[in-house]
Amino acid sequence: MSSDQLIIFDTTLRDGEQSPGIALTPSEKLLIAQQLEKLKVDVIEAGFAASSPGDWDGVNLIANNVKGSTIASLARCVADDIEQAWEAIKVADRSRIHVFTSTSDIHMEHMLRKTKEEVLKDARESVKYAKKLCDDVEFSAQDATRTDKDFLIEILKVAVEEGATTINVPDTVGYATPSDYLELLKGVYDDVKGKNEDIIISTHCHNDLGLAVANSLTAITAGARQIEGAINGIGERAGNTSTEEIIMAVKTRQDQYGVDINAETTEILETSRLVSKLTGYPVQYNKAVVGKNAFSHESGIHQHGYLRNKLTYEIMTPDSVGQEAKIVLGKHSGRAGFKDALDKLNIELDEESFNSSFETLKKIADRKGEIVESELLAIVGQVSTDSAPVKLISVSVNSKDAYASATVTLNVEGEEKTESSEGDGMIDAAFTAVKTILNSDARLIDYKVDSITKGSDSTAEIVTIVNDGHNLKQGRAVSTDVVQGSVESFLNALNK
Asked: Which of 467, 487, 463, 479 is nearest to 391 (CA)?
């Protein structure tokens, strides 16, 4: 491996699975591991073999079936842990035993209840024993960022002396900031690695302050050449460094990091979806790289720029991570985005119909947010009312038991007129008020409401057929408000 190779160590199946509520079966773990293999991560930490029989089975199943990545198992500085880890992973083409112990004063005093000398002895003996079983040994100093620096350097040197080739400096509780983590890693590089090309400095950062990815990337500058993370950033408390964010940051900002990476980025989205599905942990919409909105554009200004040149608002291509770009029609959308959506549906509108449909879209989007294709088709099917002699200003209704009333205000050729009426239900009362204002004896022949979308904010398409004494006339309207839409549909027919 070259000195410019960045190793991606994925701990979704170990630290990620420690998230509250996640309990993967061995077969589920294998599915994720096989997808991680497609993603071409360098090391898969398959689990903590000694923690339970089920975890041992999962680690062993992965070791037997995954050939493209190194398979690692975590172990405490306890002989039985190390033996169980080795028994589970020794069948793999490439195996790694990952031993760890706590090194901060607070952890040694309250968790291990051991002195520094005892912890040093445990580390020395454990790494030495693991090395007899497996050529590839990683040592982690848990809570390294709250550990006395001199003691941290001392114990890491001991691990290297006994054969550890990967030295991990975890920010176990997400306490570090980029500046102090950088300083710490530089010290580890200078004092522990030195000119020894066989030693890899690794990071394992948690996200308690939202700095896991930033800290990990900063460590590259200090000479770290392995980053440990989990897909979707899952893990203890606020989670781990997000594997996919590290991969894409390094790929996108080669000018900053200048390290090689093996990952097959087009498998990122599928990996994220599988992990989300099997763990039950949803991916937030605005999650970097894999979120639903990561490559979506709703703002009219953004849509306009994006449609002119994608580079205006995209720093990486969506297909590079298995995503698709989306122009989302919503209340912030502009005419450029609306026109693009129509073009994709092969719909051409004259200027008047375009303007009318765009205004309808904005009104509906104000109420419900995103406009989907079926709603768009219904919207553009409406007849323009811009030049209609009669327009709806407002409608309010009231209904209790057998009583229903409506107050309607219309613009009749530039003059506002208001009327209140009663009827057999709110719709009938509203139609009666309209007919009173217009002095019309038109009869409603048919009335139909179809839900275009699902949910309490669904959009309805309302069709009315009236007889004005001479001809049958059909009116249509699209609205999230059935009463308002019904009146607009009724007026649409009468205006004909």
From this structure: 487
